[in-house]
Amino acid sequence: MKFKDKVVLVTGAAQGIGKATALKFAQEGAKVVTVDIKLELMDEVSSEIKELGAELLTYGVNVVNREQIQDMVSDVVAKWGKIDILVNNAGITADSQLTKMEEDAFDKVIAVNLKGVYNCTQIVVPVMVENGGGVILNASSVVGLYGNFGQTNYAATKFGVIGMTKTWAKELGKKGIRVNAVAPGFIGTPMVSKMPDKVIDMMKGKSPLNRLGTPEDIANAYAFLASDEAGFITGTTLSVDGGVVL
Fold first, then answer.
1. What's phi and psi for 115, nearest 5 deg?
2. Catalytic residue flag (residue 59)
3. Which of these is catalytic: 59, 146, 154, 222?
């Protein structure tokens, strides 16, 4: 039980990587706070966490809305006294080539994927400082390392997340807070599974391992970086991509 008595907050926890991450921490003994704008989709992950015997709090929160985040964090602290680990997983896409991208699509992706990470972290950090430390984990992407055709907005956010990760690692280290990012490659999420077979086969073919990653692959990376085993790791971006960018 690697995270016994730890309080872990996971945004975008309703499905995919967020769901797998919440379940991973629950399996390892954590008290889990699941957060998603789509509260109606949280029943399945909530049931699975409860079946593991883990304590759970669930909130329907939009990471763009600072008031909702503040109310949630205050409620978690009132009930459990602390937040030890924050996993900034919530994110969206709205893909289009630069010359065709609508301003609204750019703004929405920036708001959720970049400003949302900033919002959650800025509001949670004082709780961690008061508690003597913590771990912040941010969702980047291989797109945030190498760019990708048709993803100007998404790439900008994922590059930005890496910049914030490095900056916060420098600012918060003396306060006992480690900050790292994970950069997933092609992952078999529910969204990807709806794509045409030829697209999925193309994704698999880009990896030397000839498969998509699983949400659990990313959850395992988050769990490692949150653990004491990674106690001297901060400011890094861990690529979990099956070698897709070699």
1. -65, -35
2. no
3. 154
